[in-house]
Amino acid sequence: MSFSALRASVRKAVFPAPTVARARVQRVPAFRRFNSTQSTPPPSPNKSYTGIYAGFGAVAVAGVAFYVYSSQSDSAKAAGTALKSGAQAAKVAANFVPTKEDYIKVYNKIAQVLDEAGDNDYDDGSYGPVILRLAWHCSGTYDKETGTGGSNYATMRFAPESAHGANNGLQVARGLMEKVKQEFPWISYGDLWTLGGVAAVQEMSGPKIPWRPGRIDGFAAQATPDGRLPDASQGAAHLRNEIVALSGGHALGRCHSDRSGYEGPWTFSPITVTNDFFKLLFDETWVWKKWEGPKQLEDKKTRSLMMLPTDYVLTQDKSFKKFAKAYAQDQDLFFKDFSAAVSRLFELGVPTQQFVSSEPWILPTVDEQKS
Ligand code: HEM
């Protein structure tokens, strides 16, 4: 199915046949705001569907882009040869060549920052979800046609990209990462933000995300235009599991009405990586939420969880459904595919020559370093 067909399915999404609701156990006590979605009247939305379609577009771009990446666009190749690697640039700037251990120190600092959310009474007790969203939004702008975008130049630092509707709320994550940057000024923003995504997934009990440094800081002129959409005709069956796996990122975090217009979490454990997003999609009955805000679904039983129309389409489109169902039934399979897809997503558009190692690294979690 092409991207335009996908959008059409989103628009036409119909209700599933009623399913037998089954009791669920709340798995993460730290999920402090769970009831707030039930008791608080939903505020008015400030945004339309545009962002969500753009977001889905970016996923498809990412998926498609990976498969054409090996042939690499000329402009990306030129950028790669013209510019020094991240490590070289860091050396010039700070007369310092960071080792793997130095990157692990940055990882540990990020892990510490994630937990500060608990002290600040932020959302569900971790900054992990919003930091993962930053990593995804800085990578998902990659455009295979022009070889531009992606995490390489970290152009979301610049207006107007920083103010694109799809990036609403990410100033929170960029601000947190800035604190880390001050302690480790030698790291590029693209490396920092993607490493943030790696730390978020790994520290929230997710799979290891292979990662390596080498991104360099770019300029405002390299910022990407708003609403990047994929070339629908490039869609291919073998991309689908990657797109579906990436969507499982919605196991984490929540929507904020003052950011996207949507409201609420997808799962009962929004600061733990699980396959619950997929399980809930199939196990619960989803109905359109009656409210003033943008069209979103809520679970019929508790009315406290949400799904975006683009999430729901994973159960409606046959070729997506196949993978979504497989992930619902097998968390190990989801972890394996999510890890591979996120790792590739974070490298989209980064010229291979810039990476400091030929293979991505597997970084230890904070707990693993203690044992
Ligand atoms: C299929 C395309 C996607 C669409 C349309 C989409 C859309 C959205 C929207 C509307 C929000 C709510 C933002 C807010 O109000 O704070 C959100 C949040 C989030 N998204 Fe996505 N997203 C997509 C793909 C992804 C991917 C690929 C990942 C990661 C691999 C991801 C990770 C997240 C996370 C972790 C949050 C929660 C952020 C928070 O709690 O602050 N999303 N997404």
CATH architecture: Orthogonal Bundle
**Looking at CATH, which topology would you report?**
Peroxidase, domain 1
Oligomer: single chain
Whole-number radius of gyration? 20 Å
The low-pLDDT segments are: 1-82, 229-236
What is the straight-line distance between the termini? 47 Å
Strand order of the largest sheet: 3-4-5
Whole-number total of structural domains = 1
Write down the overall geometry. globular
Family: Belongs to the peroxidase family. Cytochrome c peroxidase subfamily.
Main location: mitochondrion
Subcellular location: Mitochondrion intermembrane space; Mitochondrion matrix
EC number: 1.11.1.-
Description:
There is one protein chain. The chain has 371 residues and is mostly helical. The chain contains 15 helices and five strands. The protein has a three-stranded antiparallel β-sheet with strand order 3-4-5. Strand 1 (254-255) and strand 2 form a beta hairpin. The chain is globular. The relative contact order is 0.20. Mean pLDDT is 79; it is low at 1-82 and 229-236. Bound molecules: protoporphyrin IX containing FE.
